[in-house]
Design a protein that fits this description.
Strand order of the largest sheet: 1-2-4-3
Structural class: alpha+beta
Number of domains: 2
Helix content: 55-70%
Shape: rod-shaped
Strand content: 15-25%
Distance between the termini: 134 Å
Number of helices: 4
């Protein structure tokens, strides 16, 4: 006799469903977790790609800033070198006694005995070993920036090779310090 009672058939079907559920539930759970992992990895990859692009843009901006800073630094070095050079030249010009620093700027054979300045006019009294060296001095002063007028008066003695002179200078602007450095 076959025992086919309806409650047994139902119970057998429930067991089959339960076993199928127990068999496929872990695999479905694994597949859903794996899909979730792949989705999160893709989102992370996308956000890291965007982060990399943002960092590349920041790097490009930084490169531009560095280039600007380098050009500014080069200009600063050039200005500093020029400043140091002017400072060295100024150190050779003795402001307390201008006659001590004047011989380095004078042509050979020209000697200054006295220098007097009132406002924008100066007078130089001296002597020259030759007229050529005195002529060089006058031409040098006339070609200088900042000097508007140069007048030369000679007090030569025909019996001597040495000529005494008086030079009158008129400055055109108030940058006498810059002129003195030259």
């Amino acid at each position: 006799m076959i025992n086919i009672l309806p409650w047994r058939i139902e119970r057998k079907q429930k067991r089959i469903r339960l076993s199928l559920l127990l068999l496929f539930a872990p695999s479905l759970l694994f597949l859903s977790l794996h899909g979730l992992y792949i989705g999160l990895s893709y989102l992370e990859l996308t956000s890291s790609t965007q982060s990399i692009r943002y960092q590349q843009q920041q790097l490009e901006q930084l490169k531009v800033r560095v280039e600007k800073a380098e050009t500014e630094f080069e200009r600063y070095l050039t200005d500093k070198e020029r400043y140091v050079q002017l400072e060295k030249e100024l150190a050779t010009f003795d402001l307390s006694n201008p006659l001590q620093s004047l011989p380095s700027a004078l042509p050979e054979g020209v000697f200054v005995n006295r220098l007097s300045c009132v406002e924008m006019r100066c007078q130089i009294f001296g002597s020259a070993a030759s007229f050529e060296s005195l002529n060089r001095l006058v031409n040098q002063l006339r070609s200088s920036d900042g000097i508007g007028e140069v007048q030369l008066e000679l007090q030569a003695d025909n019996g001597k090779q040495v000529a005494d002179f008086e030079l009158s200078l008129a400055f055109t602007d108030e940058s006498v310090d810059a002129l003195a450095i030259r």
